[in-house]
Design brief:
1 helix; disordered N terminus; Porin; 10 strands; about 210 residues; eight-stranded antiparallel beta barrel; elongated; mainly beta
């Protein structure tokens, strides 16, 4: 009797461990909040000028929500946002023709020159999961959707120009990524991709 109880208890423990380490499967909802690098600010880091600084920092931010329609296939949405640009103290010189003297009069104004660009991408995404172990979930991803771009230029607080639309308002992304689960529902992920965001995206991996 004791032997049967021991075997039953051992089997229950093994079953519990297996359930706790089940990889993603049909019906799971996956949420990946992330940051991305590099951003366009990598181009502006070496700028010059008085009080020179970049706008928006060095990271982009986003999140992916995925629903598993099969054990190895998921569909969802990918949204990311990035702010880039730079500002510095600048001197503006304007000239006005003086008809009385027949010469030009020059006037100089100093102020902060600012360039800011903000990009938001909203994409529908499909992931094909090709490796699923107890703790690792690797996938190929493809996404396509809308890209919104807003650019502004100003000097001394006065707008010089604004553009609130992208030249090509289409975003798409190809990616290879993996999730590493520390518990049944919490882990970390990293993704390498082209277009539609940063080359490297990494953050949490949450499973429901």
């Amino acid at each position: 009797m004791k032997k049967k109880i021991l075997l039953f208890s051992l089997g229950l423990m093994i079953s519990t461990v297996t359930i706790a380490q089940t990889p993603v499967m049909t019906g799971n909802i996956l949420f990946d909040p992330y940051f991305g690098i590099p951003t366009g600010n990598i181009l502006w880091n070496n700028g010059s000028g008085d009080n020179y600084k970049v706008n928006g920092g060095q990271f982009a931010y986003g999140g992916r929500l995925e629903y598993m329609i099969a054990d190895d296939l998921g569909i969802g949405v990918d949204v990311n946002y990035v702010k880039t640009g730079y500002s510095y103290d600048s001197l503006s010189v304007t000239s006005t023709y003086n008809a009385t003297t027949g010469m030009y009069d020059y006037d100089s104004t100093s102020g902060l020159y600012d360039y800011t660009a903000q990009k938001t991408r909203i994409m529908i995404r499909i992931n094909k999961h090709f490796v699923q172990t107890d703790n690792v979930d690797a996938y190929f991803g493809a996404a396509a959707g809308y890209r919104l771009v807003s650019r502004s230029y100003s000097f001394a607080g006065s707008p010089l120009a604004e553009q609130d639309e992208a030249l090509i308002p289409v975003a798409f992304r190809l990616a290879l990524g993996a999730r590493f689960y520390f518990t049944q529902n919490i882990g970390a992920h990293v993704e390498l991709g082209a277009f539609g965001g940063q080359v490297i995206q990494a953050g949490l991996a949450l499973k429901f």
